[in-house]
Design brief:
By secondary structure, this protein is mainly alpha-helical. The protein contains 15 helices and no strands. It has two domains: 199 residues, 3'5'-cyclic nucleotide phosphodiesterase, catalytic domain (Catalytic domain of cyclic nucleotide phosphodiesterase 4b2b), CATH 1.10.1300; 170 residues. Helix 8 packs antiparallel against helix 9.
Length: 393
């Protein structure tokens, strides 16, 4: 016949496999087996005797079975399940009482009264001095949210863990020897996580303050408003100037190509060497036309702006490229959303100025390349014609 410890293990495995709630990520089978292993190590170190060791192992296996029925007050449920199970296997009453006594000792606020209680108490909190502690407390936080409806901000949860670790101490010297070093390292990890959270929070607050300062300056400062208006008007005027210059280059070079093909083609047949300067001329004109066209070419736009993107960050519904494919109702709702929030309205102004400036910068860069090609090409064409004339005469 199997001994009682083996039967208890099989019973616990069955309970955790069949009845354990799916969101119980901390008080799971791994935790139970870890508590059992630590209890056996401490029990062997303090030579508590075979009978006490048996009771200790059974209590460690059964101490969290109550979670299958209740989260708060699970210790009492665990004790009731232990009594029912052990009686069904004719386990002696005095030994059942010892097992129940050890299960009761796992209550968080319980102060142990003897060595056996100190051993199981230390075993139940061995996770404080083990690896993957950050994952462990994340699992505990999940349980507290689901089963206790207790939800903490990141900083508050880390502070609570630090306070708990500072207020905790193991009751046996052996547990201190086994877990205190790692416990100190785990505390440093929690402190580091808290500092990172506080730093991020401080940075977000700083950015928000800077954002509010910018918003206030636009809303209340007439000089700032005038500066934005002037800048927008200058950008539009410069865009018009760039397009006019590009159109001039298109007209000039198209005319040169037309005249060159009609007048210089017969010259090439009578003087084949004329193909060199003429080729330079035509290449210059074509390259100039390409860059002039790129300067005046409209930018590609989606024509759609999702309402979520308006709520989530800066977007500009006053620019046609962001709404020309939208329905009127959707566009109207988006505009109202922007107008109802001064921050979003200011973001639209800033966004408009920024992207208009980006487009203007690209225009003038392409226009500069266009004029450079025309200047160098025409110079090389004149030089080529001069060299050819000199060589022939």
């Amino acid at each position: 016949m199997k001994n009682i410890v083996k039967l208890t293990e099989e019973y616990v495995l069955k309970i955790f496999e069949q009845d354990l709630p799916p969101n119980l990520h901390y008080h799971d089978l791994n935790h139970t087996m870890s508590v059992r292993e630590t209890a056996l190590i401490l029990g062997a170190h303090y030579e508590i005797g075979e009978a006490n060791m048996e009771a200790m192992e059974i209590a460690a296996l059964l101490h969290d079975t109550g979670y299958v029925k209740a989260y708060t007050g699970h210790e009492q449920v665990s004790a009731d399940l232990a009594i029912s199970f052990l009686k069904s296997h004719n386990y002696p009453e005095d030994k059942i009482a010892l097992v129940v006594d050890l299960i009761d000792a796992t209550k968080l606020v319980y102060v142990p009264k003897n060595l056996l209680q100190r051993i199981i108490k230390d075993s139940d909190l061995n996770n404080l001095g083990q690896g993957k502690y950050m994952k462990t407390i994340a699992n505990l936080r999940h349980e507290m949210k689901i089963f206790l409806n207790q939800e903490y901000e990141d900083a508050a949860f880390m502070e609570m863990n630090i306070a708990f670790m500072d207020g905790h101490s193991y009751f046996t010297e052996k547990a201190n020897e086994l877990f205190n070093t790692k416990k100190a390292k785990n505390r440093k990890k929690v402190v580091k996580a808290l500092n990172n959270i506080l730093s991020e929070k401080k940075e977000k607050k700083r950015k928000k303050k800077a954002r509010l300062t910018l918003t206030d300056s636009i809303n209340s400062n007439k000089s700032a408003q005038m500066m934005f208006k002037t800048a927008l008007r200058n950008h539009i005027d410069l865009t018009s100037i760039a397009d006019n210059k590009a159109n001039i280059m298109l007209t000039i070079n198209a005319g040169i190509i037309t005249v060159s093909l009609s007048l210089l083609a017969p010259v090439i047949s009578s003087n084949p060497k004329m193909v060199y300067p003429i080729s330079i001329l035509l290449t210059t004109c074509v390259a100039t036309i390409i860059y002039a066209t790129l300067t005046t070419r409209p930018i590609k736009t989606k024509g759609m702006t999702a309402v979520k993107s308006i709520e989530g960050g800066p977007t500009n519904l006053f620019f046609y490229g962001n709404f020309y494919k939208m329905g009127f109702k959707e566009y109207k709702a988006g505009i109202k959303l922007v107008l109802d929030d001064e921050n979003k309205l200011d973001d639209s102004i800033i966004s408009d100025l920024f992207y208009l400036g980006k487009a203007l910068g690209n225009k003038f860069m392409q226009l500069r390349t266009c004029y450079l090609i025309f200047m160098v090409g025409m110079t090389l064409t004149v030089i080529a014609f001069a060299i050819l004339f000199i060589l022939q005469h």
